[in-house]
Amino acid sequence: MVRTLLLGSSLLFTTAALSQTTLDVVAWKGNEAEPAGLPELIEAFEAANPDITVELSYVARKDVDKVIPPRLQSGNPPDVTMVDSALVDLWGGAGFLTDLGTDSEWYGRIQPAVSDILTSDGSILVFPLEVIGMGNFVNMALLEQAGIDKAPLTLGELKDACQALAAEGIAPMIFAGGFPAMLFVGANGLDPNNNLAASYGSGERTFVGDENFNASLDAVRDLVDANCFDPALQAGLDPWATAPQEFRAGNVAILPQGAWNIGNFSSVEGLDYEFAPMPSQFSDQGLALDLIGPGWAIPTDARNKEAAARWVDFFSVEDNLNIFLEAEGAYSPFTGGRSTMPDLAAPYTRAREQGSLILWPFSTLEFPKPLQSEWEDSITGFLLDIDGANSETLQRWDDTIEDNL
Amino acid sequence: MRARYSLYLFTLPALAVLFLFFIHPIILTADMSFTSFKGIGESKDIGWRNYERIVSRDRYLDAIWITLFYTVIVVPALTVTGLFFAAILHRLPAIRNFSRAALYTPAMMSFVVIGYVWQFLYSPLNGGINVALRDLGLGAFEQNWLGNPDIALFSVAFVQVWMFTGFTCAIFLAGFAGIPEEIGEAGRLEGATSWQRFRYLELPLLGPSITVSVILTTIGTLKTFELPFILTNGGPDGATRMLSIEIIDNLFGQYKFGFASALSIIMLIIVLAVAFVQNKVLRDRELSS
Q1: How many domains does chain A divide into?
Q2: Segments forming the whole domain that contains residue A99
Q3: Buried-most residue among A119, B13, B39, B97 (CB within 10 A)?
Q4: Are B147 and A377 inside 8 Å of each other by CB?
Q5: Which pTM does this prediction carry?
Q6: In sequence order, what are the beta bridge partners of A10?
Q7: ipTM
Q8: Shortest CB distance from B119 goes to which of A73, A241, A373?
Q9: Pairwise CA distance, residues A155 & A136, whole Å
Q10: For A253-296, what is each residue's pLDDT tens digit?
């Protein structure tokens, strides 16, 4: 009798174990340093899908290029993997990613500008998770010391703020030659009312004689004249370590950077700041620079495709996605829904709502990858020789585009 | 005869490992350098196009030049500083072991840690070096250490020299230990000063140590990647962009595996050529002295 009972229960356990699916998920978020709400989301997903156990493997973004391609090519990929636009282009182009279907329920809810970029030949290979803002972090306490009570949204306001701050002996702005300077130059060169990014990227339109980009470089000179920053001093400043550290320490009033720094800056006690759109010649509300963030993709050879599809669908539910977005300090790539951005990002959110925004062309691949490093280098060179002709800088961009065709 | 065959037989496992893990990857890299492989999917044969691109673009020739120039700065500096400290410590046995360990400590630390620490020290905004200069009344010497293209390469080189002086010092101290006591004793009896003993007795006898030190530091410096990557990422405007940074950028920044392979083969040829010439010159010098 006892033996029969034991046999029966062991059979029951074996059957349950056999029907349990282990979903192999790879992501560069979800670790202790950047949880992105994933531990909480996995728990909720497993509760809603008791037949699935999620095994999340954290792989740093820089390691994804080395770890995942061998798995994709050997036919042993993860069931779901985090991807960005460059990886979608590379892996999808080689046929290693599954079409998630433009007939899916969530596809119709993606913001049109985002879905246009992500859809290729009638198929969509990625479920977009977030859109991340890029603009100016503004230390409101320092601005207040200079008698200013709102973050600058126009070029005029920015120059006035710089002059007032400099007069008070406060360092007005970080304008490191790499990423921060790129944001300003991009925001003043790309017209949101006439998106020509793809034309520049394809070589159809050149930078060198372009009125907008010439004006953008001239605007940088205007900032120098307004004492916003010392170009030679800031040209080689590290935009990823030194620049945010200076803002955290309250040593500088304005820092062009991405909203992914919100968590980092909010952890500094007493740092009173706002996240605002980039002042631009094209807008009175400032220009929001949206970067299309990572998403989920299902490899072609995934073993548990059905479970993987359920994982993707789980994120398409607004309440679930909002957990991720809130932790990330990001906007939803879907239309409608409740915003999870903190109040300190209100100026940026307002600009987005008023339609004063562009999708950052390096994240949409409208600008080719090699142009990004050329922008960083050449704008640094421009800052080091601020009186040099604009054409010296702009020609380098055209050469890179031509080289990449 | 049989014993000779046995000797060859015993080398087979080592040769197999050498082929599998060293020669075979080089053959694969050379093969990939003639393709437009993106790291995944099919690779397309494109002949010599990657190499044509390298020799026809200033960007890559500049990277080769910067790599060589950086090596010319770092190797002599490492040799001189290592020799200087070794010569002093050889004469101060009481503090030799402690000082050797202290000098070697930076070489044992992670490049990443050292890179970030020096980045903050070099920072033009409240960086440690500029603040110290200001506090010492030497504000006129403040510099944008990593942001000025004229001095950025020297600033990166200084960190590398600081980091690896202990390494070359250890090599020279081993060389000093191999010099018989009697030689120094004879010099002293002949009335030679400390400098004369170093110049005319010890330095010629340190020939093999100099050869080892120069060849090892040259190979290591030609392949340098971590410090310039962390400190400047090749900037400002390419002033510190070495071949190794260019390779990584093409590999994982632009997914041009074929092109990066071609750059790697060029780098390998440069390293082998420089090491071969150096070895020949230094060995000949050892024999003639």
Answers
A1: 2
A2: 22-128+294-329
A3: B39
A4: no
A5: 0.82
A6: none
A7: 0.74
A8: A241
A9: 13
A10: 999 999 989 988 999 999 999 999 999 999 999 999 999 999 99
